[in-house]
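task queued by scheduler; priority normal; single chain, no ligands, no partner chains; default sampling; output format set to structure tokens
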Amino acid sequence: MLDEFLDTESTYLADIRLVIKEFVIPLERLLPPSLHEALFANLVGEIEPLHAALSERLGERLHPNPSPSPSPDPDPDH
């Protein structure tokens, strides 16, 4: 169940980033700054960073990276 939640969150984050890439950035040149800010400020400034952090933390909790094993000593005699 938690893996499904993480997958859904990752898909949502990818969708947010697609909207930013395909709409928010191109419309910045076409819209007055105040309108662009009113339409997209929360998406870029709050929503995307929030979901990026949530997705990263969920991924770390559900799939922790094992600690790297020490590298073998290339010259064990010294």
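post-processing summary
- The two ends are 51 Å apart (CA to CA).
- The chain has a mean pLDDT of 87.
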